[in-house]
Amino acid sequence: MNGGRLPTAEFEVEEVERAARTAELGQDRQAEPDMLRILDPEGRLADGMTAGIAGELVDFAPYLSTSDAPHLLSLYRDMYLVRRFDQESTALQRQGQLALWVPLTGQEAAQIGSGRAMEAQDYAFPTYREHGVALTRGVELSEILRLFRGVTNGGWDPRERNFHLYTLVLAAQSLHAVGYAMGIQRDQLADPSLPQAASVAYFGDGASSEGDIHESMVFAASFDAPVVFFCQNNQWAISVPSTVQTRVPLAKRAEGYGFPGVRVDGNDVLAVEAVTRWALEHARTGRGPVLIEAYTYRMSAHTTADDPTKYRLSGDEQEWRTRDPLARLETYLRSAGLADDAFFEGLADEARVMASDLRAAVLSMTAPDLESRFAAVYAEPHPLVQEELRFFQQYESGFADEGKHA
Amino acid sequence: MNGGRLPTAEFEVEEVERAARTAELGQDRQAEPDMLRILDPEGRLADGMTAGIAGELVDFAPYLSTSDAPHLLSLYRDMYLVRRFDQESTALQRQGQLALWVPLTGQEAAQIGSGRAMEAQDYAFPTYREHGVALTRGVELSEILRLFRGVTNGGWDPRERNFHLYTLVLAAQSLHAVGYAMGIQRDQLADPSLPQAASVAYFGDGASSEGDIHESMVFAASFDAPVVFFCQNNQWAISVPSTVQTRVPLAKRAEGYGFPGVRVDGNDVLAVEAVTRWALEHARTGRGPVLIEAYTYRMSAHTTADDPTKYRLSGDEQEWRTRDPLARLETYLRSAGLADDAFFEGLADEARVMASDLRAAVLSMTAPDLESRFAAVYAEPHPLVQEELRFFQQYESGFADEGKHA
Amino acid sequence: MATMTIARAINEGLRASLANDPKTLLMGEDIGELGGVYRVTDGLKKDFGAMRVVDSPLAESGIIGTAIGLALRGYRPICEIQFDGFVFPGFNQITTQLAKLRTRSDGMLSAPVVIRIPYGGGIGSVEHHSESPEALFAHTAGLRIITPSNPQDAYWMIQQAVSCEDPVIVFEPKRRYWLKGEVDTGAPVGDPFTAHVLRRGTDATVVAYGPLVPVALAAAAAAEEDGRSVEVIDLRSISPIDFDTVTESVTRTGRLIVAHEAPTFGGIGGEIAARISERAFLSLEAPVIRVGGFHMPYPVARVEEQYLPDIDRILEALDRAFAY
Amino acid sequence: MATMTIARAINEGLRASLANDPKTLLMGEDIGELGGVYRVTDGLKKDFGAMRVVDSPLAESGIIGTAIGLALRGYRPICEIQFDGFVFPGFNQITTQLAKLRTRSDGMLSAPVVIRIPYGGGIGSVEHHSESPEALFAHTAGLRIITPSNPQDAYWMIQQAVSCEDPVIVFEPKRRYWLKGEVDTGAPVGDPFTAHVLRRGTDATVVAYGPLVPVALAAAAAAEEDGRSVEVIDLRSISPIDFDTVTESVTRTGRLIVAHEAPTFGGIGGEIAARISERAFLSLEAPVIRVGGFHMPYPVARVEEQYLPDIDRILEALDRAFAY
Ligand SMILES: Cc1ncc(C[n+]2csc(CCOP(=O)(O)OP(=O)(O)O)c2C)c(N)n1
Ligand SMILES: Cc1ncc(C[n+]2csc(CCOP(=O)(O)OP(=O)(O)O)c2C)c(N)n1
Ligand SMILES: [Mg+2]
Ligand SMILES: [Mg+2]
Q1: How far is it between the farthest Cα atoms of chain C?
Q2: Is D144 part of the contact surface with chain B (CB cutoff 8 Å)?
Q3: Is-catalytic flag, C128?
Q4: pLDDT at A2 > cutoff 50
Q5: The model's pTM
């Protein structure tokens, strides 16, 4: 096991540094983004959107909502509100009201587009950053903050929203999504009158390297499970660029499992919505899983505990600001005459109210008592938990009587 | 969590049965084998072998040894000897001399072909069935039987043979192969005069579903590690057909990671050797990993504890017998006038001697004493192990004095 | 009353669960056509179909993780892990997801997943096929862990595991799969989480579970010849542990031996010893003595007999306890 | 002598290891450019390059598994797991491969891999960021587990882990990362697998490790005000455990409290209680009392103070011990 020792200096050759820089910047390896898009960064709408997927030419026209003005406005509204929510939450964290915050700014189109593509009967499994999807599923935004205030690890009833709890162990939820989809299959076999449904597994470019992502794709393919894998490739896993996880578009992984994979401009809410609608229909109608890679960018820090200046260039951040998902839809809405200043001002007012309601909700969130946590461990009675609870109660009441030591 | 209960009968619809049969037989889903081959089941040699791999046309002529008669004979010899070894080991197991045996019959070409493609400085990580590869690496065949006799979990010194110990936890060794390859990279950076080398990770169609296979491919691609992934798709993971693991050729997985994947006729030793030679050169010269899927068949049981009649049709087994890797090379050798009866008889004699030596070696293997096992747990002194060893020694010597209870 | 082996009893128990509740389903490697490498699920795919007895891809995290998803959709998956040593690729899903789902959701969600794991040694097998990893799960809150030692318990405990709203790991003593016994298929036994006193005694208590229960009973019989009256408790549940039954016994006998195949260091015997030492401190005439595996990976087959706790090791421990 | 934090001491220790042995390398998530989420590896990539300080893909099994392969090629990888709760995807590689490699090869091969895991609570964080899973590794033979509680130990123990031929898991008490202390960078301390008596006492012994060492010391100081002389032992090594030092102490004091953040049930405290109860049975005036976490997933940040063993919980345990 002990090979010969080499002098340290030998390692400090130029190749090392170059290799390191290549891996970091990933410039000469990552394929040029080749992806589905209908609304470009300048806010110009293309005529249509088609793609060759798994050997078939798919025309996304039936899935596009480009001519439905109220719908477009509502997409913008969702994106705007969730960005405002993000800002307010960041502020609340800075003020010590939240333990941590996970910003989504930059990923609004990926999240609102995919979330809005779902039907009520579909079920989403998020990571920890899917606040936009949460909004589209009807989760109260303040409910999300309960986790980040440290008063719960959950926050809402997933069964009411068909939106699962945040899962912090990367990639674990992807298997849950596949299992849930296998349940949908069985339900529909038992009762074909049930509305067709699918599940959606959200995960990031970093999480894509975990074994659980692979196993979930293997199971999904094997059982033709009605699941859509939705990967937000926001270029970064904390400080690690996506080029460390993959040298080719993540969407290509799907081919290896025999189901379609699509890369979509994750900052184009219309394209994301259309592609996800198509994918969900694919899954729901028994044609098996689909992988969507939404190519986007985390415009903010990984969390409020993170400092991106340590690992990425501000020039990169600047460059991505020109592809802001909100800006491009605003440009289009204005240029197409679908929205005017009044619309945007009204939205800003609405957001201000939302933010102050949110703040009030957060400040009124009370911490649970540890005592209440004993009841949540098991569904059925458990002697050890009961014994420890009794100890805890006696111990605490001892203090009530005696006053604390020390 | 408690959805409505459905009557059992609802599940017993025809679709279920059909779905089950489809999955079992996998006929209408698995793509028709499209694979590299030079020697066909009838023992006819093609003119050459070329393939488009990752956009490049690869001509395998430089890697083929079709005109090297002594080499061809030696390939046949290796395959023949290891099959004989398999038969003898099976017999030893039946006679109670081995706890278990894992037959390789049917996979000789995949194993001898890939094993012979390696250079001395390459390093292989086997599963538990790579007896053929072991032979090519110079492992004494009797050493392999030590594991199956239950006297060790290892059996040989991997550093002497550049052939790692058998790993029974499926897919775990694949990551070791990648790490080892990362070590090769560092060694070569430190000392460019070292011979270029690569590692080979063996695994099966079943193991391909494990998360570790994915993570090993992610790491290999990320670091351009000089590793060849060699998957023997022998159609079965115990009783589960490979169609449950994948609907498309496993070789396609490689594309999703951005490195080449090739499916080769795993019963054609010449093609396997050529493809593996090419892949090893690819890896050794810094062009990154390659995945080879050797399409073959486990002609025997999974292990001596298995009964394949429970799950597969004897017709299938018959059909594959016509593709026997030994038979086709024999036919070619005879038709090309490269070998005559004398050669095959001489080989049979050699194998008989080998078998009886093997038997003698097995019968002379003595069980270790548990006492000796205490020393193998840690490299450095360990008080708990010492304490338990003392207890054990006293306990055993107590019996020596007193005679056993009960 | 019918006489059957433990393997058959589990098969019948699974059959009853599948028949009683259409939301139940079995998942695992080789459990369908083959009926499992130990034939415990033999015939079930034929009778309940491939949607209820699922030959899964070969991936343990996949099996547990999709089972959690199925449970979230209202199903009651029963997963088989082929051997004790192969549960570890699924360890993350069990430890961070399955066990924590209920707490994470503040009690809103439950995940009634059952995980069957054939465990233990004495079968002359190769690496990873003879381990006893129960302590690695017992430490994690949110899981329940039971292990039957006879056909009657096997038949009922598997069914009780399936109907429990909490996740339950059922460790099946694989070297006892062919142990025969009477099964009363009409009458359910009580709670699977209680310990059973299998033999009454007055001088010492031996606690064992799963594969070592017959060993403990034989040791007690041998001790009787030496004039020692030994009580034997089948723990049955490893999480929770029925400390009341053990404490009550030790209060009477004053001596406790805990035996398991798993290595002693960090094993569940330490938990029992610690807690009983606290609960019955003034009754103990000797320290609790643990009989277990040594601190080494489970050894090769040819030496496993020396390694495994047997009658003599328990008798030796009794000798030590009586020496105080 | 220099004053530094535990985080800095580990950084300096890693730096020394990297400088002394070109075969060492660091692998993990975010350890390079960022210097780790706790900045423990800050500056090391800059100074040693990307081949020696490797930002790996995001996959824990991949990190441990490739580290094993590197070790087989003669390297000495030092892996960082970002948080305690994220070690489980790598559990299989640690438990079935890393720990068993030496035994599998009959002592021919070793795998000197170091795994650094920041652990423990008290940092007000979200789920999976505050756990103490040490018992889940201690039960597995083949691994060594150490945990420093002060900068001096941190500086040396990491280096000793790196030079040890066995795999070593270093649990780093993350809430103490900013605890300052003197470090003698010239003189190595002794064996990292021995316990240190940090405070002498005559009436009771408190054993703690990692993050609870300062708590135990404070409790001992508070107890002194009540007229009780409490000895405090920093265990330092969780596998192996230096039972000699603990036994010697308890033989003198007659009472033992074991404190850890990990849940009591199935925790390492049970092992200590069981073994010391056996070794020092006749010296114990009271049962060994364990102070630990409750049987629940680590609770949300807002209640963790109620959950974590603190001075009062140790004093209450002492009260109980003195009540016998
Ligand atoms: C299994 C696991 N390992 C490590 C972590 C720590 N961690 C939290 S987020 C993160 C990066 C995730 O990157 P990505 O998947 O791209 O998602 P993003 O944060 O960019 O949305 C890491 C390493 C974790 N949560 N889970
Ligand atoms: C992680 C793990 N799970 C389960 C097993 C039990 N098992 C041993 S071999 C086998 C089938 C393997 O099939 P494949 O990978 O195709 O290899 P083959 O046996 O066909 O060579 C199974 C399920 C194991 N060894 N490891
Ligand atoms: Mg990301
Ligand atoms: Mg196979």
Answers
A1: 60
A2: yes
A3: no
A4: no
A5: 0.96
